[in-house]
Input
Amino acid sequence: MRLLAMVARRCLWMPPTLFGLLLIVFTVSHVIPSDPARVMAGENASASQVAAIRHQYGLDLPLPVQFLRYVKDVATGDMGKSLFTQRPVAEDLLARLPATMELALFAMSLAIAIGVPLGVVAALRRNSWLDHLVRVVTVAGLAMAAFWLAILLQLLFSMWMGLTPVRGRINGWGPDPITGFFTLDAVLLGDWETLGQALRHLILPTLTLALPAVATIVRFTRAGMINVMSSNFVFYQTAMGIPRRRIVWKYLLRAALIGTLTQIGLIFGNLIAGAVVVETVFDWPGLGTFAVNSILHSDYNAVMSFTVFTGVIFILTNLMVDIAQTMLDPRGR
Amino acid sequence: MNGFRRLLRDRSARLGLIVIAGLVFCAVFAGVLAPFPEDVNTYHLPRRLLGPGGINFLGTDRMGADIFSRLLFGARLTILTAVVATTFAVLIGVPIGLIAGYYNNRLSDLLMRVSDVFLAVPQIVLAIAIAQTLGPAIHNVILALSITYWPFWARLVYAETRSVRNEVFVEAAVAIGASPLRVMALHILPSIASSVIVRTTIGLGGTILVAAALGFLGLGPPPPTPEWGRMIAESREFLPQAWWYAAAPGVAILLVVMGFNLLGDGLRDALDPRLSRGTDDRTDGR
Amino acid sequence: MIAPMDADLLSIRDVSVSFTTESGTAHVLDEISLTLRRGEIMGLVGESGCGKTTLARTILGALPPNARARGTAITFDGRDLLTIDPREAADQIRGRAITFVPQDPFSAFNPLFTIGDQIFELLRWKSPDREAGERGYPRTRRRADHERALALLRRVQLPDIERLLRKYPHEVSGGQRQRLMIAMALLPEPRLVIADEPTTALDVTIQAQILRLLRELAVERGVSVLLTTHDLGVAWEICDRVTVMYAGQALETAPIEAFFRAPALPYTRLLLDSLPSGENPLRGIAGDVPNLVNPPPGCRFHPRCPEVSDVCRASRPPTSEPAPDHLVRCHHPLAVP
Output
């Protein structure tokens, strides 16, 4: 019951947060520039074009009115049209969401699958060669620019060794969309050829995105483990002769993972943010390439909508992380 | 100075300090160290895309400019961006966190809610939006980074202030009638300074990464500014042949960010001996 | 003599433990000798830092990695715990033949798992029905263990047991948690329970209840108890015999009556005199607890002892028996009437 109350309380906080986010984006797009219509029209637009845009987007109205209109539009799922393609931005973003989510989820799963055991083992064998190696990898992983790592991996594995595709998400069109996740759709359709291809395309982007996530997860898992290892309950179970493996992988790990879990929301945010640059390198047709293309075309509205859209995803992720955390830690209930 | 000696005893902190000292040295003496200082602005098309070796230690770029020289001048830009943007973020975030943490009222809630809203979007995404509006220029990058980065300090200082707010030394200062401003500046701030310093050190590294990403996306200062992120972006159309073109700036970024992270870790150990490395990662950023 | 017929359940002979620390090697236990009979409750008394917890951990085989134990033997039920295969000790001795009641029942439970989970985790590995080395948890044994747990929890007077098992540790009071710890210590049907300051963390009113419960159960089941405490009142409540430790040395062992009425050790005398009572104002013992990295030679109590002479500084006193069943290691024992 208390879990439900917590979820309800968090959900109640979402509208004000979203409202605040819209206010920031609106300020950035409508208040900071002295003439937003000129920015939207682009550098080479004529005065009449600028005037047309000003009128078309209601930029001649008072700012509070503009803001309320903006909030109303976004609330009804209308994010306006792209200034470049003239297509509704919300549709484009939704169409590209599965590609980015598939990539982010693969990277997240990989990062957890590698990071958690590595963190546990590093904590159990403190100051061993493995622990030192893990530390070096962690420090490097957090210091590497994602786009650079992407280029490096592409150079090495795709261009020089020819092991993986250089770019894209699939050759050709991809499976008929059911979920929009190519791997999942291929499995659902029983199309193993497509599945293999989709996976091959996923390897490098996933690796790139996963590395900093692995670094964060290892760090927090290791720190969490070391923190709980000296707890009285660990001593009690040891003194009562419960097998070490059992203590470590059942009782210690759960306690250690709570600290790691607080980071999962942040890590997911980083994955989405990292996707912006990594997708560009691999021509991955997701939200990131959409954002970058919009930047290149000075497609102002698209960039702002992308910001709001990412914010929504991020807020939802954090909500889910909070719920998971409450379920794992009975003290917070 | 005891803290400084402890810092020097830590191997990774020493390494970090050396790397950062190296970066500052390169930035200050870029004009002297660079074999071709004029290559920041001029080009020699006949010498374009030469591999490493010979007079061009790290090869040349698409304009025939010496990559090593450009990297050295890029260090200036990197330090300038990171230091100025982080300073602004600290100057905004620390007072907000202090006030919100010291008082426990509607204003605190409001301030923290506002910083939560900023944290509700990944920093780089918001920075992209702002930099896009403002246009590609170095001061706009700095502005975008400052605006998106301060909530991290506000959050940290808020939490730390909250935890010392009810300590005896704070209560005592309040009891003898010290003004809130005095208590915050002379009693609370010194006791939480070490976490702020650690966070700021690591934050400098983070700022460099985000600034490089903005540069890579074309939102940084325009060419021919020798911005490291932009250099990597430029190299892409010449891959896989001109690998050095992409590799060199990336290594520079890696080294510098690693230097700040290592120094931050070492500082944490030296400034706050209670928290040994690995048992406290509260102050880690993204 | 056949081992199981032996009246002594546990016999510790000349056991020393040292810890490697940053400031040097700390000699925390110095040639401790001690015997514990079947079915008896022995109190291990001393100031904090005297090594009683370390002794408890040594018997359990749960010393921290920087500690080293050596000595002649720790004979438990005919087996030497100093030389036993560690895997066998973990499977057959620890938590099975010898169990443990921790000092702080608040932190001895993992806060993230229900009480029931932690009790059945223990029984999974330590149930009396478990075969040596068995890995799984067959359903028949699980059912039997469940009944066993319910019965014992009822016996330690815990209310609403099925619901209690589904609760998390923080939802249960301190007294109830310590009852749970005692129940968990008895569930594996051990021969020895080591209780390390079991009531220190509890309110005074609950202390007495818990001690009485522990004594009742131990007597009822014929289990020996080794109880460490710094509180002579606790020892008086439930112990049959008491051993006094000082700075890692065991100096006197006596039946409870003799211990309080006529101690032979000057240190015990001072301890008893320092108890607050009607005519005595509160007073301590002059001097400080010695540094264990560089302990005083001979009898470690000599710097604070009123009876001190040169021989105390030169050599460790031999064990003498001033009265039946009353052992003391002192060069100048007090006269026992």
Chain C has a mean pLDDT of 89.
